[in-house]
Amino acid sequence: MKIYVIGTRGFPKIQGGVEKHCESLYPLISNMNCSVKIFRRLPYITSENDQKNFGALQFQDLWTIKNKYFETIVHSILASLICIYKKPDIVHIHNIGPALVLPLLKTFNIKAIVTYHSPNYLHSKWNMFARLLLKTAEKIVERFSDKIIFVSEKQRRLSAGKNTEYIPNGVEINVSSINSDYLLQIGALDKKYILAVGRFSQEKGLNLLVKAFQTIETDCRLVIAGDADHETKYSKHLKQMIDQDKRIIRTGYITGDPLNQLFSHAELFVLPSYHEGHPIALLEAMSYGLSVLVSDIPANLEVNLSPKRYFKCGNVNDLKNKMEYCLVNKITEKEKAHFRSQIEEKYNWKKIAEQTIEVYEDTLAR
Fold first, then answer.
1. Residue 138, Cβ neighbours under 10 Å: how many?
2. Residue 25 lies in a domain
3. Other beta carbons within 10 Å of 143
4. Residue 176 domain flag
5. Which residues on adjacent β-strands are paired with residue 249?
6. Quick one: three-class SS letters along 91-142?
7. Are residues 340 and 361 in the same domain?
8. Pair 144, 283 in one domain
9. pTM for this one?
10. Same-domain status, 244 and 277
11. 134 is in which domain, residue-wise?
12. Using one digit for the tens of pLDDT, what is the confidence trace for 277-308?
């Protein structure tokens, strides 16, 4: 099968949940008798990730304007024109924004599958027009896609479409790093910091975490790994909040061994999001056997943690109280084992790749 992929900024070393999803999924699919081409966005390609192949995968880097309102649709249109010319067996689109090109692809009888990662129109970064456009894109997905893959079972149940599948995000069972040179570099100590990982955008709730942490008396520091895709008033204010507090460390976007070290040696992982499609960062923390604390939004509740690991979304006092509780009450070996068994059984990338191939084969058989 020849598969072309639209909707990711690209990978490796490019921030984002969709990017992490694609980086984990498609190398496996390309080893299952599939030829896979990933359309990447040229503004995100640097000397560190400027390569034409990733294992058996092929990259095609296309120009687009780096602007949060226009970059996705411009890139998706250019990619879809190439798809129309090259005629792959299937075009796999990630998220509803890029799926605005579905009518164009279907005009030329190209099979198209959409992975629905999240209802993006709920994100506060969008203005009214952008939200309307994304809601329109959602309707287009329901009408024109040959199959919709939902990473959230609850979101799938809300869909009116019949041709849907639930295939969650996944994560690898990570091997903890014994290194600590990066920790020393940033001023963090083993088991003496709380970790948060995410984009500096409002839906991630990192400002709430900063406020809650500043009210806690602890010798732990707070390490926040991530950055903004596009600098905004919110991201600038968040960075200012962090940089004014000597107990908080801002690493910027990191990958590889530095990120591995942060997950390996953290005392507690916190995910304070207001909205998530399916929380890969939470699954990563669980794979390291970390104590975790997350907001009680539907996507996080689907992971089915114990009640003590949830706080009321947006409630700074509840977040403060639950953080204090988790810092005192350490995670048990039994709970660590439960986390790992969940990942092996439900969030295993190999199984997810096999399920995705089945969707491709079913779509082509129609």
1. 19
2. yes
3. 11
4. no
5. 223
6. EEEECCCHHHHHHHHHHCCCCEEEEECCCHHHCCCCCHHHHHHHHHHHHHHH
7. no
8. no
9. 0.86
10. yes
11. 2-170+348-365
12. 889 999 999 999 999 999 999 999 999 899 99
